[in-house]
């Protein structure tokens, strides 16, 4: 049998929405995958030639960009942050909708109000720097890996750039959403070289394309 394809999926919220889409595209994980107590990171699927790995969202992009996994699902926020040339994102899965936004406490002035430099806490330093640069502002980014919303209250940075969905996390931490930097949704990503050399990758892309074009009515 040919080497199995490795499909990387992110832990966290996106997974719940991604699973039905994957199943409609014929990617059905083994039972153990649904067992909350299971600590394994690799799972078989009903396809003998396809296995899943469950990793952090940023790592999905890294595994696929390096060809260690051939296919993956990840938010467009992560794709934008890495800007990997070996990574191709052919299908918008129309799930995992949220936005990447600049937020700050109410007493912090609007970005762009005359400042040429600002400090921002974020998991997205590249996207953040680029966005501020377009406004002639130099952003000094303090990299955090989660719980960005706590940074202003502790004086780490007056502004944050983070994902916003319902807005509850911002509100409950005394922050206001100021600017939407990008709208986010989950994408199917593939390694460019694998797409060229392994027909199974192109076939998976087509399956997901079909599923995404005909959202489940149920
Ligand atoms: C995300 C994001 C925000 C929150 C926004 O974090 O980083 O903190 O969700 O959602 P809301 O607008 O609906 O409140 P998540 O809970 O996924 O965990 P993380 O901090 O590990 O990224």
UniProtKB/TrEMBL annotation:
Which Gene3D superfamilies does the entry mention?
Answer: Periplasmic binding protein-like II
Q: Could you confirm whether the keyword Glycosyltransferase appears in this record?
A: yes
Give the principal location in a single coarse category. Answer: cytoplasm
Recorded catalytic reaction(s): these are: 1-(5-phospho-beta-D-ribosyl)-ATP + diphosphate = 5-phospho-alpha-D-ribose 1-diphosphate + ATP
A GO molecular function annotation here is: ATP phosphoribosyltransferase activity
Q: What family does the entry list?
A: Belongs to the ATP phosphoribosyltransferase family. Short subfamily.
Q: What name does the UniProt record give this protein?
A: ATP phosphoribosyltransferase
Organism, per UniProt? Pelagerythrobacter marensis
């Amino acid at each position: 049998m040919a080497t199995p394809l490795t499909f990387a999926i992110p832990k966290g919220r996106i997974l719940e929405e991604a699973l039905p889409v994957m199943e409609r595209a014929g990617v059905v994980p083994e039972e153990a995958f649904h067992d909350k107590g299971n600590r394994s990171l690799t799972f078989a699927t009903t396809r003998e030639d396809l296995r899943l790995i469950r990793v952090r969202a940023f790592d999905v992009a890294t595994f696929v960009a390096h060809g260690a996994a051939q296919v993956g699902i990840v938010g467009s926020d992560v794709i934008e942050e890495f800007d990997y040339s070996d990574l191709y994102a052919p299908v918008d899965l129309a799930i995992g909708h949220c936005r990447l936004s600049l937020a700050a406490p109410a007493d912090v002035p609007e970005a762009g109000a005359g400042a040429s430099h600002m400090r921002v806490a974020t998991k997205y330093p590249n996207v953040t720097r680029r966005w501020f640069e377009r406004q002639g502002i130099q952003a000094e980014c303090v990299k955090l890996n989660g719980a960005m919303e706590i940074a202003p209250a502790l004086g780490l940075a007056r502004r944050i750039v983070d994902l916003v969905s319902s807005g509850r996390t911002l509100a409950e931490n005394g922050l206001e959403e100021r600017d939407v930097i990008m709208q986010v949704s989950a994408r199917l990503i593939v390694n460019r070289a694998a797409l060229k050399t392994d027909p199974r990758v192109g076939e998976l892309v087509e399956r997901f394309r079909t599923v995404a074009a005909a959202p489940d009515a149920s």
